[in-house]
Design a protein that fits this description.
Structural class: mainly alpha
Number of domains: 1
Strand content: under 5%
Number of strands: 0
Distance between the termini: 25 Å
Radius of gyration: 15 Å
Largest sheet: none
Number of helices: 5
Helix content: 40-55%
Order of helices and strands: HHHHH
């Protein structure tokens, strides 16, 4: 029930960003990744296509791992500062 409510909030664009997003994000359990939709309301979208020679599941697994324990592509320390600042103002 909690997971269903969370996905409903995502669909309604009712998810508020939090300091936790910057500190540990990008970790989505594989069985839930099929249900996650990127919010579209109030968001800029940049869509790109690229063919991969490897298994699509492996590609998706790597996409969901961005951030979190693996970190970001660059400036991890800036993301941690952003998380700290969000926490300071109650985010």
């Amino acid at each position: 029930a909690a997971v269903k409510r969370a996905f409903s909030k995502i669909a309604e664009n009712a998810v508020i960003s939090s300091w936790k997003d910057a500190w540990v994000s990008g970790t989505v359990h594989g069985k839930y990744s099929d249900f996650v939709q990127v919010p579209e309301h109030g968001c800029l979208t940049d869509r790109r296509n690229r063919a991969f020679a490897c298994d699509p599941e492996k590609v998706l697994e790597n996409i969901w791992a961005i951030g979190g324990e693996r970190g970001w592509y660059g400036s991890n320390w800036l993301w941690r500062i952003r998380g700290f600042l969000d926490k300071l103002v109650g985010g």
